[in-house]
Amino acid sequence: MAMLEINDIHVYYGAIHAIKGISLTVEEGEIVTLIGANGAGKSTTLRTISGLLTPKEGSIKFLGEDIAGKPAQDIVKLGISQVPEGRRIFANMTVMENLELGAYTRTDSDGIESDFQMVFERFPRLLERRDQAAGTLSGGEQQMLAMGRALMSRPKLLLLDEPSMGLAPLLIREIFNIIEDINKSGTTVLLVEQNANMALRTASRAYVLETGRITISGDAKELAASEEIRKAYLGG
Predict the structure, then answer these.
(1) Residue (of 60, 49, 64) closest to 2 by Cα position
(2) Domain 4-87+153-233 classified CATH 3.40.50.800?
(3) Where does residue 97 rank: exposed (0-12), middle (13-18), buried (19+ CB within 10 A)?
(4) What is the pLDDT of residues 94-149, one digit of tens each?
(5) Alpha carbon distances (Å) from 68 to 11, 13, 34, 60, 160
(6) Contacting residues for 54 by C-beta, under 8 A, at least 6 apart
(7) Residue 143 to residues 100, 132, 148, Cα–Cα distance (Å)
């Protein structure tokens, strides 16, 4: 049984048919990426998995349980956490308060304490700035905070929406190293990314989304080598 199994989902924004019957799977321990142009439906797919949108048709199963239409906070409790596009940190709250909010569904204070340590080991810059207002952080630090906040719920599956957006090339490399590290520590990752080069280099499998439909899927390295994908998404 796959960890996440999406079967023929259709999602609408009012009259707009944004997702037109996509199916995909994510196995435990994988990094799977969704690539595609702007407006292809990548973020909509993640928002539907995390319960912010409800599919009109189709099913979404997480560890065998159908989660389509469940409230978002219940989906977090089941073990899915999302790092939203544009980070969405709470700018007027401190770094520490943002991280505390990530653990809002938990009551195991010892576990929460050890996860604060884990986040600070993984993101030393957040430790240095723990009492600073999150809005004063640089773009890269805000991305680290958004990832740290998501990890505080101890997700089995981490959904990452455009983690490299707006970051300098050096920082992008650092963020992707961190994603690989999070995955090696046992968290499964579903990654939506405009930087198709980095995404295909990092993931084991990939799905290409075009206007609400999956047009190609397969081994990430093979897709990175394919002429068609190179022309469309890798600049050459």
Answers:
(1) 64
(2) no
(3) middle
(4) 999 999 888 887 788 888 888 898 999 989 989 999 999 998 998 889 988 999 99
(5) 11, 16, 19, 5, 19
(6) 11, 48, 68, 69
(7) 16, 15, 9
Distance CA 85, CA 161 (A): 5
| Residue 10: C-alpha distances to residues 34, 50, 113, 136, 147 (Å) | 17, 15, 40, 39, 28
pTM strictly above 0.85: yes
**Rounded Cα distance, 235 and 94, in Å:** 40
- For residue 165, give the amino acid letter: M
Across residues 24-37, what is the average pLDDT? 96
The SS3 call for residue 191 is: strand
Residue 188 contacts residue 29 (beta carbons within 8 Å): yes
What CA–CA distance (Å, rounded) separates 161 from 191? 6
